[in-house]
Amino acid sequence: MYKIFETVDEVSRYTAQRLLDTILAKPEAVLGLATGGTMEPVYAQLVGMLEQSAVDLSRLTTFNLDEYIGLSASHAQSYRYYMGQHLFDRLSLPRESVHLPDGNAEDVDAACRAYSTAIQAAGGLDLQLLGIGSNGHIGFNEPHTDFSCRTHVIALSEQTRRDNGRFFSDQSEVPTHALTLGIQDILEAEEIMLVATGSKKAAIMAELYHGGVDEALPASALKQHHNVTIVMDSQAAALLPRQEEGGAA
Ligand code: PGA
To answer: Which tens digit of pLDDT belongs to each residue from 128-186?
Structure first.
Protein backbone atom coordinates (compact mmCIF):
# COMPACT_ATOMS: atom_id res chain seq x y z
CA MET A 1 0.00 0.00 0.00
CA TYR A 2 1.25 3.47 -0.86
CA LYS A 3 0.31 6.43 1.34
CA ILE A 4 1.22 9.79 -0.08
CA PHE A 5 1.00 13.04 1.87
CA GLU A 6 1.79 16.58 0.84
CA THR A 7 4.32 17.41 3.54
CA VAL A 8 7.08 15.80 5.63
CA ASP A 9 5.13 16.88 8.70
CA GLU A 10 2.08 14.86 7.65
CA VAL A 11 4.25 11.85 6.78
CA SER A 12 5.94 12.02 10.17
CA ARG A 13 2.68 12.37 12.09
CA TYR A 14 1.11 9.44 10.24
CA THR A 15 4.17 7.22 10.81
CA ALA A 16 4.47 8.15 14.49
CA GLN A 17 0.76 7.48 14.98
CA ARG A 18 1.14 4.01 13.43
CA LEU A 19 4.04 3.30 15.83
CA LEU A 20 1.95 4.53 18.76
CA ASP A 21 -1.05 2.43 17.64
CA THR A 22 1.18 -0.65 17.51
CA ILE A 23 2.39 -0.01 21.07
CA LEU A 24 -1.15 0.64 22.32
CA ALA A 25 -2.50 -2.53 20.69
CA LYS A 26 0.39 -4.64 21.97
CA PRO A 27 2.35 -3.17 24.92
CA GLU A 28 4.86 -6.04 24.65
CA ALA A 29 5.50 -5.29 20.95
CA VAL A 30 8.93 -5.74 19.38
CA LEU A 31 9.75 -2.76 17.17
CA GLY A 32 12.43 -2.63 14.50
CA LEU A 33 13.77 0.92 14.39
CA ALA A 34 15.66 2.88 11.75
CA THR A 35 17.89 5.96 11.78
CA GLY A 36 18.67 8.64 9.18
CA GLY A 37 17.38 12.12 8.45
CA THR A 38 13.94 10.79 7.47
CA MET A 39 13.29 9.42 10.95
CA GLU A 40 14.25 12.54 12.91
CA PRO A 41 10.82 14.23 12.53
CA VAL A 42 9.08 10.86 13.00
CA TYR A 43 10.75 10.37 16.39
CA ALA A 44 10.09 14.00 17.35
CA GLN A 45 6.38 13.41 16.70
CA LEU A 46 6.40 10.08 18.53
CA VAL A 47 8.04 11.58 21.62
CA GLY A 48 5.37 14.32 21.65
CA MET A 49 2.55 11.79 21.31
CA LEU A 50 3.98 9.56 24.05
CA GLU A 51 4.39 12.53 26.39
CA GLN A 52 0.73 13.41 25.97
CA SER A 53 -0.64 9.90 26.35
CA ALA A 54 1.39 8.50 29.29
CA VAL A 55 1.72 5.10 27.57
CA ASP A 56 3.44 2.33 29.52
CA LEU A 57 6.63 1.40 27.64
CA SER A 58 7.96 -1.00 30.25
CA ARG A 59 7.20 -4.11 28.17
CA LEU A 60 8.32 -2.76 24.78
CA THR A 61 11.42 -4.16 23.05
CA THR A 62 13.33 -2.46 20.23
CA PHE A 63 15.97 -3.63 17.76
CA ASN A 64 17.76 -1.16 15.53
CA LEU A 65 18.45 -1.97 11.92
CA ASP A 66 22.09 -1.14 11.56
CA GLU A 67 25.24 0.46 12.95
CA TYR A 68 28.54 1.67 11.55
CA ILE A 69 31.62 -0.39 12.28
CA GLY A 70 34.33 1.38 14.23
CA LEU A 71 32.52 4.40 15.71
CA SER A 72 32.37 4.58 19.50
CA ALA A 73 28.93 4.72 21.13
CA SER A 74 29.65 8.33 22.09
CA HIS A 75 30.55 9.35 18.51
CA ALA A 76 27.89 11.83 17.40
CA GLN A 77 27.31 9.90 14.16
CA SER A 78 27.02 6.44 15.67
CA TYR A 79 23.48 5.15 15.49
CA ARG A 80 23.55 4.37 19.19
CA TYR A 81 24.18 8.07 19.84
CA TYR A 82 21.49 9.07 17.31
CA MET A 83 18.89 6.85 18.98
CA GLY A 84 19.72 8.22 22.42
CA GLN A 85 19.45 11.78 21.18
CA HIS A 86 16.24 11.39 19.18
CA LEU A 87 14.34 8.75 21.14
CA PHE A 88 15.75 6.67 23.97
CA ASP A 89 16.98 9.47 26.24
CA ARG A 90 13.57 11.10 25.90
CA LEU A 91 11.46 8.07 26.84
CA SER A 92 11.10 5.92 29.92
CA LEU A 93 12.15 2.78 28.10
CA PRO A 94 14.14 0.22 30.10
CA ARG A 95 17.71 0.21 28.76
CA GLU A 96 17.79 -3.59 28.62
CA SER A 97 14.86 -3.51 26.18
CA VAL A 98 16.85 -1.55 23.62
CA HIS A 99 19.12 -3.37 21.15
CA LEU A 100 21.53 -2.14 18.50
CA PRO A 101 24.08 -4.11 16.50
CA ASP A 102 27.52 -3.73 18.12
CA GLY A 103 29.79 -2.06 15.61
CA ASN A 104 32.76 -2.57 17.92
CA ALA A 105 32.32 -6.27 18.67
CA GLU A 106 35.58 -8.25 18.72
CA ASP A 107 33.94 -11.09 16.84
CA VAL A 108 31.56 -9.34 14.48
CA ASP A 109 30.34 -12.53 12.81
CA ALA A 110 29.34 -13.97 16.18
CA ALA A 111 27.70 -10.63 17.07
CA CYS A 112 25.71 -10.76 13.81
CA ARG A 113 24.49 -14.28 14.46
CA ALA A 114 23.57 -13.38 18.03
CA TYR A 115 21.61 -10.33 16.85
CA SER A 116 19.32 -12.22 14.47
CA THR A 117 18.89 -14.94 17.10
CA ALA A 118 17.95 -12.36 19.75
CA ILE A 119 15.20 -10.99 17.51
CA GLN A 120 13.78 -14.46 17.04
CA ALA A 121 14.05 -15.18 20.78
CA ALA A 122 12.09 -11.98 21.48
CA GLY A 123 9.27 -13.38 19.34
CA GLY A 124 10.15 -11.62 16.07
CA LEU A 125 9.52 -8.06 14.95
CA ASP A 126 5.94 -6.82 15.08
CA LEU A 127 6.68 -3.69 13.07
CA GLN A 128 9.84 -2.86 11.13
CA LEU A 129 10.37 0.80 10.30
CA LEU A 130 12.59 1.49 7.27
CA GLY A 131 14.05 4.42 5.40
CA ILE A 132 15.47 3.96 1.92
CA GLY A 133 18.82 4.96 0.47
CA SER A 134 18.97 6.86 -2.80
CA ASN A 135 20.41 3.60 -4.24
CA GLY A 136 17.48 1.57 -2.90
CA HIS A 137 19.19 0.12 0.16
CA ILE A 138 17.12 -0.84 3.22
CA GLY A 139 19.06 -0.99 6.46
CA PHE A 140 22.55 -1.03 4.97
CA ASN A 141 21.69 -3.82 2.54
CA GLU A 142 23.31 -2.35 -0.52
CA PRO A 143 22.37 -3.28 -4.12
CA HIS A 144 23.05 -6.96 -4.93
CA THR A 145 22.91 -8.10 -1.31
CA ASP A 146 21.58 -11.64 -1.21
CA PHE A 147 17.93 -11.48 -0.10
CA SER A 148 18.44 -14.56 2.08
CA CYS A 149 21.03 -12.75 4.27
CA ARG A 150 20.58 -12.32 7.99
CA THR A 151 22.50 -9.77 10.09
CA HIS A 152 25.85 -9.31 8.40
CA VAL A 153 28.81 -7.03 7.75
CA ILE A 154 28.52 -4.91 4.63
CA ALA A 155 30.95 -2.68 2.73
CA LEU A 156 29.14 0.61 2.21
CA SER A 157 28.74 1.70 -1.40
CA GLU A 158 30.38 4.94 -2.53
CA GLN A 159 26.88 6.37 -3.10
CA THR A 160 25.86 5.64 0.50
CA ARG A 161 29.13 7.04 1.87
CA ARG A 162 28.57 10.21 -0.18
CA ASP A 163 24.92 10.51 0.90
CA ASN A 164 25.81 10.07 4.57
CA GLY A 165 28.86 12.32 4.30
CA ARG A 166 26.50 15.24 5.00
CA PHE A 167 26.39 14.17 8.66
CA PHE A 168 30.21 14.08 9.06
CA SER A 169 32.61 17.00 9.10
CA ASP A 170 34.74 15.34 6.44
CA GLN A 171 33.92 12.69 3.83
CA SER A 172 36.98 10.68 4.86
CA GLU A 173 35.43 10.17 8.33
CA VAL A 174 32.46 8.19 6.94
CA PRO A 175 32.99 4.56 7.93
CA THR A 176 33.56 2.08 5.12
CA HIS A 177 31.67 -0.81 6.75
CA ALA A 178 28.57 -1.41 8.82
CA LEU A 179 26.50 -4.12 10.44
CA THR A 180 22.98 -4.49 9.15
CA LEU A 181 19.96 -6.64 9.70
CA GLY A 182 19.59 -8.87 6.63
CA ILE A 183 16.74 -8.73 4.14
CA GLN A 184 15.57 -12.11 5.45
CA ASP A 185 15.30 -10.72 9.00
CA ILE A 186 13.40 -7.69 7.68
CA LEU A 187 10.97 -9.80 5.67
CA GLU A 188 10.13 -11.85 8.76
CA ALA A 189 8.59 -8.80 10.46
CA GLU A 190 4.81 -8.99 10.80
CA GLU A 191 4.42 -5.54 9.34
CA ILE A 192 6.78 -3.14 7.55
CA MET A 193 6.62 0.63 7.05
CA LEU A 194 9.04 2.26 4.63
CA VAL A 195 9.23 6.05 4.77
CA ALA A 196 10.67 8.23 2.00
CA THR A 197 10.70 12.01 1.90
CA GLY A 198 12.31 14.67 -0.26
CA SER A 199 13.17 15.04 -3.93
CA LYS A 200 16.40 13.02 -3.61
CA LYS A 201 14.25 9.89 -3.19
CA ALA A 202 11.95 10.55 -6.19
CA ALA A 203 13.95 8.55 -8.76
CA ILE A 204 14.43 5.47 -6.60
CA MET A 205 10.77 5.48 -5.51
CA ALA A 206 9.69 5.50 -9.16
CA GLU A 207 12.09 2.63 -9.88
CA LEU A 208 10.72 0.72 -6.92
CA TYR A 209 7.14 1.38 -7.97
CA HIS A 210 7.58 0.29 -11.58
CA GLY A 211 10.13 -2.49 -11.17
CA GLY A 212 9.94 -6.14 -10.17
CA VAL A 213 11.72 -8.00 -7.38
CA ASP A 214 15.42 -7.65 -8.09
CA GLU A 215 18.51 -7.89 -5.87
CA ALA A 216 19.87 -4.84 -7.69
CA LEU A 217 17.20 -2.85 -5.79
CA PRO A 218 17.12 -4.13 -2.20
CA ALA A 219 13.83 -2.40 -1.29
CA SER A 220 12.11 -4.42 -4.03
CA ALA A 221 12.33 -7.42 -1.64
CA LEU A 222 9.39 -5.79 0.16
CA LYS A 223 7.17 -6.71 -2.79
CA GLN A 224 7.34 -10.27 -1.44
CA HIS A 225 5.84 -9.22 1.90
CA HIS A 226 2.11 -9.29 2.68
CA ASN A 227 1.88 -6.23 4.94
CA VAL A 228 3.95 -3.27 3.79
CA THR A 229 3.04 0.41 3.84
CA ILE A 230 5.17 2.81 1.83
CA VAL A 231 4.74 6.35 3.13
CA MET A 232 5.93 9.29 1.04
CA ASP A 233 5.70 13.04 0.82
CA SER A 234 4.80 14.69 -2.48
CA GLN A 235 8.45 15.28 -3.37
CA ALA A 236 9.48 11.64 -2.99
CA ALA A 237 6.33 10.60 -4.90
CA ALA A 238 6.78 13.19 -7.65
CA LEU A 239 7.58 10.59 -10.35
CA LEU A 240 4.82 8.12 -9.42
CA PRO A 241 1.56 7.95 -11.41
CA ARG A 242 -0.79 10.65 -10.19
CA GLN A 243 -3.62 8.29 -9.21
CA GLU A 244 -1.46 6.93 -6.40
CA GLU A 245 -1.67 10.22 -4.55
CA GLY A 246 -3.56 9.84 -1.30
CA GLY A 247 -4.63 6.34 -2.30
CA ALA A 248 -3.69 2.73 -1.90
CA ALA A 249 -2.04 0.50 -4.48
P1 PGA B 1 17.99 9.19 5.19
O2 PGA B 1 18.59 7.72 5.08
O3 PGA B 1 16.74 9.07 6.01
O4 PGA B 1 19.07 9.97 5.91
O5 PGA B 1 17.73 9.65 3.81
C6 PGA B 1 17.75 6.66 4.74
C7 PGA B 1 18.58 5.41 4.52
O8 PGA B 1 19.73 5.52 4.07
O9 PGA B 1 18.04 4.32 4.74
So the answer is: 999 999 999 999 999 999 999 999 999 999 999 999 999 999 999 999 999 999 999 99
Contact 193, 128 (CB under 8 A): yes
- Does some domain include residue 209? yes
Domain CATH code at residue 218: 3.40.50.1360
Q: Is residue 241 part of a domain?
A: no
* DSSP-assigned letter for residue 59: T
User: pLDDT tens digit string along 190-228?
Assistant: 999 999 999 999 999 999 999 999 999 999 999 999 999
**Catalytic annotation, residues:** 66, 135, 137, 142
CA-wise closest residue to 151 among 192, 100, 218: 100
Q: How far apart are CA 78 and CA 75, in angstroms?
A: 5
Residue 132 CB–ligand 1 contact under 6 Å = yes
Give me the amino acid identity at 2: Y
Considering the domain boundaries, does residue 204 fall inside one?
A: yes
CB-ligand 1 contact for 38 (6 Å cutoff): yes
Residue 73 pairs with which residues in a beta bridge? none
